Amino acid sequence: MKLIECPRDAMQGLPEFIPTATKINYLNALLKVGFDTLDFGSFVSPKAIPQLRDTAEVLAGLDLTASKTKLLAIVANLRGAETAVQHPEINYLGFPLSVSETFQRRNTNQSTAEALTDVAAMHELCERTGKTLVAYLSMGFGNPYGDAWSPEIVMDFTQQLAAMGVRIVALSDTIGASSAATIAPLFSALIPAFPHIEFGAHLHTTPTTWHEKVAAAYEAGCRRFDGAIGGIGGCPMAADQLTGNMATENLLNFLAEVGLESGLDLAAFARAREEAAGVFAFH
Q1: What is the three-state SS of 97-134?
Q2: Considering Cα of 83, then 10, then 102, then 151, what sign does the dihedral take?
Q3: First vs last Cα of the chain: how many Å apart?
Q4: Is the pLDDT of residue 87 over 90?
Q5: Beta-carbon neighbour count of residue 120 at 10 Å?
Q6: Is there a contact between 165 and 158 (Cβ–Cβ < 8 Å)?
Q7: 3-state SS assignment for residue 258
Q8: Separation of alpha carbons 88 and 211, rounded Å
Q9: Given the DSSP bridges, would you call strands 244-245 and 204-205 parallel, antiparallel or unpaired?
Q10: Tens digits of per-residue pLDDT, 27-67?
Q11: Where along the chain do its domains lie?
Q12: How far apart are CA 99 and CA 220, in angstroms?
């Protein structure tokens, strides 16, 4: 099972700017753990996400010499993608393609149709530069705006991505709207329908609902999971203030429960969690 650690998602909404040196120290601790991928930063407008305005400087400070972990950066448009691909250390570019038209406009200031055009251009750019595009289907399990949602709509978006050649699609539970009853049918339908796509789960959850969500995705065949140490971060539009990122600790507990090795250096994980407690002030 692939574990993608998402400190970018944990940091981006914090009002207090985390010093660049602190970010670098934390990310370097995470790079020693052995995660498949580190969602470390984003190349977006500093006005939109001021917390991550130092992503290029952070990247320059990362020690990648002894780490097998791949780097993923989020981009919000083609301009950001063009900036990101100039950094040879970055393996993946992630783009939030929303199933909700309203959220696409709020999140990237474009229509869904415009976003799909950008995705095609980004995919071609990634192919030319040796990167891989990860398409996140935001609001993949429903939205708070009343925009149409159904498994068929998610299937249609995936079909369009497949036609472009996109090889990694992560269903994103942007506001914690998912349940086992929606997660299982989606993955059960998508995974066999698109065998050339690697499907991931970027789930937001409350402390009491994480297990059923992970189990539903795993039992439906998903083997790529995003998490964040301490469950920090999440969408400010979530109805429940306890809704945050899937805690990496819970993913590790689930792996132990089903008898799978995580492949992580657990001593390094413990040290990274101590770093996280200082960065995010949790215990």
Answers
A1: EECCHHHHHHHHCCCHHHHHHHHHHHHHHHHHHCCEEE
A2: positive
A3: 27
A4: yes
A5: 17
A6: no
A7: coil
A8: 37
A9: antiparallel
A10: 999 999 999 999 999 999 999 899 999 999 999 999 999 89
A11: 2-270
A12: 21
Residue 148 to residues 85, 193, 210, Cα–Cα distance (Å): 34, 22, 25
DSSP 233: -
Return the minimum-mean-pLDDT range out of 126-135, 170-179, 186-195, 265-274.
Answer: 170-179
Residues listed for the chain: 283
- For residue 18, what is the DSSP state? P
**Residues facing 168 on adjacent strands:** 134, 198
pLDDT, position 235:
63
Q: For residue 162, which of 129, 123, 189, 130 has the smallest C-alpha distance?
A: 123
| Residue 15 DSSP symbol | S
Beta bridge partners of 198: 168
CB within 8 Å of 38: residues ≥ 6 apart: 4, 5, 7, 27, 30, 31, 69, 70, 71, 72
Token couple for 110 = 């474009």
Alpha-carbon distance 18 to 231, whole Å?
Answer: 18
Report DSSP state, residue 227: E
Distance CA 236, CA 182 (A): 22
CA dist list (Å): 274 to 4, 36, 120, 269: 19, 20, 40, 9
Residues classed as catalytic: 235
Q: Which two tokens mark 73?
A: 């950066």
Reduced to 3 states (helix: H, G, I; strand: E, B; else coil), residue 281 is coil
CATH number of 2-270: 3.20.20.70
Reply yes or no on whether the pLDDT at 141 is more than 80: yes
CA dihedral 143, 145, 148, 152 (to 10 degrees): -10
- Report the chain's mean pLDDT, rounded to a whole number: 94
